[in-house]
Every structure is written in structure tokens, then in C-alpha cells.
Amino acid sequence: MAFDTWLIFVVTVFFVSATPGPNMLLAMSHGIRFGLRGALPTMAGLLLALGLIMGGSAAGLGALLAASEQLFSFVKYAGAAYLVWLGYQAWRAPVSERMGSEDDESAAAVSNWQRFRTGFLVAMSNPKAFVFFAALFPQFMRADAPQMPQLAVLAGTFYVIESSWQVVYAFGGAKLKHWITSPLRQRLMNRFAGGSFMAAGVALSTVSRA
């Protein structure tokens, strides 16, 4: 793979990953709720799912979803429903009179496994991601060169950029936690997060294979 081709890939993924979609929104909201360290299991779930999506796309699952309207629609609507449900939960999340030990105890009640599972399911909820990777990677690969080393470089590059942006969003969320000290601000943040997840779910339900 030529260096200039790799640089174009870096720029492309940098801006794609920076876009505040469901993955980054979840990293930020869990950063607010659990702090940066507490959001690490969430990010691990997001990254594992993205790794499986990249592997599935390379194995032909992306092409299968692109070819099957029924399968694509099933995954799409299931993912949209899950995002809307997450949004509803965030919208209705309780607020406290003061942020402190009670909030820490509430956050501790959500296990690392639950955070990991949420991250995994959110990242897996978008069938468009399978089609995206299946369409994106070949644009930067040479057909006359070994495929696996090229896939490893592209996947590794994607992981570094994506995980870096997730840390940025989670860190930003952790910093916001110190600002959200009143019930009004907590409620506004719950409404913002819930509305954003529900909007993402509605938007996902409208995507097509093309």
C-alpha cells in the first residue's frame, strides 16, 4: 500500500470517526455517568463489535447485507428499536438533588459487563456499518498485492483513530459531569442524550443499502 493512499485513508477515517454518531454519543454519555475509567468497558464493547463488523465485511457479510433486502431490513429495524429504547431510558433517567456518593453508588450498580454489552450492541445495531466497511476498504487496497497485510494495516489504523476519538468523547463527558450538578442540568442532559439516541434510531430506520 502506497503511503499517500494510506494518508488519504487516515484523513477519511479521522473525519468519519469524529462524526457524533451513536457510538460516540454512547462514549460521551457513559463518560458523564461513569467517568473516563468507568467508560472503558463501554469502549471495549464498541471496539470489539467494530472488529467483528470489519471481519464480517471482509468475509462477505457486508455483501450479503447489501444483496438481501430482507436481512438488511431485519438488522436495521432491530438496531433502530434498540437505539430508541436506549434513548427512552436516558430520557426517563432519574435525577438527584446533588451529585455525589449516591450517584457513584448508582453508577456502581451498573456492572462492567452491562456497560460492555451496551457498547457492543450499539455498535452492532447498524447494518450500514457492514456495507460501509465492505465498500470502504477495497478503495484503498491493491488487487495485485497480498490482501491480509493490507487489511491488517487498514484495520489497525481504523482502531487507533476510532479508539482515540472514543477517549476524547468519554473524557469530554467526564468533564461535563462536574458541570451537571443541579437537577435542571441533569434533566436537560438526560433529554439531550435520550433525544439524540431516539433521533439516531429513527435515522437508522430510514437508511437504505445503497
From TrEMBL:
<keyword id="KW-0472">Membrane</keyword>
<feature type="transmembrane region" description="Helical">
    <location>
        <begin position="71"/>
        <end position="91"/>
    </location>
</feature>
<keyword id="KW-1003">Cell membrane</keyword>
<feature type="transmembrane region" description="Helical">
    <location>
        <begin position="120"/>
        <end position="140"/>
    </location>
</feature>
<comment type="similarity">
    <text>Belongs to the Rht family.</text>
</comment>
<feature type="transmembrane region" description="Helical">
    <location>
        <begin position="6"/>
        <end position="27"/>
    </location>
</feature>
<feature type="transmembrane region" description="Helical">
    <location>
        <begin position="39"/>
        <end position="65"/>
    </location>
</feature>
<keyword id="KW-1133">Transmembrane helix</keyword>
<feature type="transmembrane region" description="Helical">
    <location>
        <begin position="152"/>
        <end position="171"/>
    </location>
</feature>
<dbReference type="InterPro" id="IPR001123">
    <property type="entry name" value="LeuE-type"/>
</dbReference>
<dbReference type="Pfam" id="PF01810">
    <property type="entry name" value="LysE"/>
</dbReference>
<keyword id="KW-0812">Transmembrane</keyword>
<protein>
    <submittedName>
        <fullName>LysE family translocator</fullName>
    </submittedName>
</protein>
